[in-house]
Write a structure and sequence with these properties.
Number of strands: 19
Radius of gyration: 26 Å
Largest sheet: 8 strands, mixed
Amino acid sequence: MAPIVSIRSLQDHVGEEITLQGWLYNKTGKGKLQFLQVRDGTGICQAVVFRDNVSPEAFEAGKALTQESSLIVRGVVRAEPRAPGVPGGYEVDARDVQAVSIAEPYPITPKEHGVEFLMANRHLWLRSQRQWAAMRVRATIIRGIREWLDGHGFLNVDTPIITPAAAEGTTTLFAIDYHGEKAFLAQTGQLYNEANIFAFGKVYCFGPTFRAEKSKTRRHLQEFWMVEPEIAFCDLEQLMEVEEQFVSHIVQKCLAECEPELKVLERDLTHLAKVTPPFPRIHYDDAVEMINDAAARGELVPGYPDPVPAIEWGDDFGSPHETYLAAQFEKPVFVHHYPTQVKAFYMEPEAGRPEVCRSVDLLAPEGYGEIIGGSERMSDAGKLVAAIEHHGLPRETYEWYLDLRRYGSVVHSGFGLGVERTVAWVCGLDHVRETIAFPRTLTSMRP
RNA sequence: UCCUCGGUAGCUCAAUCGGCAGAGCAUGCGGCUGUUAACCGCAGGGUUGUUGGUUCGAGUCCAACCCGGGGAGCCA
């Protein structure tokens, strides 16, 4: 039997007889000629079955194939500019066709479908080109994340998913029963990360995160993946430098390695090519001014029919504010020094100006929203006790966290990057549900 | 939780003023040597989300409910 070759590497086998194993994506019959679009997980390629080149049995086998039937094709690879596919440009001149399993009438056709139907058939939808491309970009982004962190002295130390208490708001936790004790699914590994840096210097955790938010928007999932690096001896300014290097690496890696996938997604690559350090930085004070100037001019939120709403200093940004701000820049933009009152208790207040804290969010361009939230952490035990009490949090729960400030405290910072929002941005997808194989949304957890 | 839009064939949609339930795709059969979501011909395929109401007559109007989409708040 001719060697089995993946569609992704067909270009290296021109003129050779090879074997393809895969599934029928689409078919065009032309009497004595059949064009079989075969996908094998690495790409899509056309097998041309000409009646005079194959046995009558093989020709009939080809004719009998339905969409998504599994098949094996033996044939000779040739370069052919007319050949469609992913990456395309090469086709297989078939010498033999075998049906492995004839598929029953397949519900997802190459035509359009609605979201409800596609989500109900998510297990099949994943076979479609765009979903295939998005999952491959996601995997590349995850490789880029680990590659950059592992290559820059970060140790991967994963944090628990079952936790006893909330780091942030208590309304968005999924509660579980832990042998009779109430426990929660983790929203962040950050507090544990802070313990880990005192052992390992620079660490990151990477795993699923759970938020029971009643959010029904294109940017929200109940279960999403987050990578959270944490760095000892690092202040806010150094943190921003890390973030922009990190994000730029991820994006540039996708551009270098996922050209066929991004083409399937019809992504405009000129936007992504601009993602290189440094990223613009704006102070919260200036951001408020920009927003209120736009509101005074009656400017519309890009992509929405509504005007930019005015904001009062001290309030957190709403979605329309973030969308407007990000649209003013070609690259991701840092917004730093948010008001202390809208941020988590552990963020370091600015020296001499405690009403703002040393926090920074990174907003993705083109309306993809906040992809990173981070800050310099409070490093003084006394100030941290006061913050815990001010937020009405139970001090006992945080004793171990306070210990970190008692035994060799240092300036340290960290951030969390949401994988799904990053994938949506890089892929140009309009909804995060397409950035993970089996999304958990407010209204759906099946299949 | 609130605002907003929708639910008709397996799928995507149409149905004028309240008056015979219709098309494309998919499926089956036939035709074609360069198709790119092929095309041409023929065929099968319907409890119009549910319940109730108005009416000679309801996919269409009214009420309640169910399900889904988009958005807000909150967040990555």
